[in-house]
Amino acid sequence: MQKFKSFASDNNAPVHESVMRAILEVNQGDAIAYGDDVHTLKTEQLFKEQFGPQAKAFLVFNGTGANVSALSHLSRPFNAIVCADKAHIQHDECGAPEKFTGCKLHALPAPDGKIRTGQIKPLLHSTGFQHHAQTRIISITQATELGTVYTTEEITEIAQFARENQLILHMDGARIANAAASLGVSMREMVTDTGVDVLSFGGTKNGMMLGEAVVFLEPELAEDFMYTRKQSMQLASKMRYLSAQFNALLSNDLWLQNARHANRMASLLSEKLSALPQVQITQPVQTNGVFAIVPKPAIEKLKRKYFFYVWDEGRSEVRWMTAFNTTEEDIEAFVKAIREALED
Length: 344
Ligand SMILES: Cc1ncc(COP(=O)(O)O)c(C=O)c1O
Hints:
40% of the residues lie in helices and 16% in strands. It is α/β, with parallel strands linked by helices. The chain folds into two domains: 17-249, 3-Layer(aba) Sandwich (Aspartate Aminotransferase, domain 2), CATH 3.40.640.10; 254-343, Aspartate Aminotransferase, domain 1 (Alpha-Beta Complex), CATH 3.90.1150.
């Protein structure tokens, strides 16, 4: 059978073999349910090693669940959450953040995926005014939905701004590993030391079968979160199968190796595309996504061979993503197919 090859999303990648093995290894005998098992205890410890001793991690099923449970835990329905216009919470969660938090989302224009404090400042004029939603949370995505990354200085600036204004800083880290690999810093330096309050930690896109985590860097914010997680339907009974995956990912730097590799494959793709004048790369390639404007007829032809998404129909812009399992041969073959589609 010919292997299906997608450049649509790191969600289309398989499960890393070490993760699969880890699932099989814990599949023996009974274990206490709902997270009171030795594997989950180990996972909690591994999160502390990555993010510092005060970090408290709660495992959940998926990224939307991580974002929605974290945001609803930290807000009240009269609050507002500030994010980028292309943020997953704004664009790709079917309105779940609005439904479950009751909050208004202030989606700010972010042509490079990043929001800046200068854009948030004017929203705070509403603070204390009873007719306006009260801004409570800033949510940034690292790496952004456009594959770019906030520098540690940029995160620190937003965190300081949040603190000065009694706001909470949430980070959607569905691709946190790709961002840390790109910056060449530890997750602790990028998240804990910059002053992020709560993180949605992504595992699925980086080699896991399923599973994300809500990680509180400010322990008092974690108070009662176990009830929020349960009410959010994100408490796994057979938790050991989630924990085993995290234990594989967070051991021996597998998270970093996978992310570095995916990023390197995206760089390779962009390097090769630079030789094709008809393809215009639209965002700096800093992690594992390449955004490019490609002539429409070529997109149609290429789609017959490869699965990927058109990001912006109007601009004829595509998103091509790599993952831990993308090979140099995959990139060679893909670029050859792009060249042929452009030539026909
Ligand atoms: C930035 C971002 N956040 C969160 C998610 C997680 O979403 P899901 O609920 O599909 O796991 C994704 C998945 O594509 C994402 O790209």
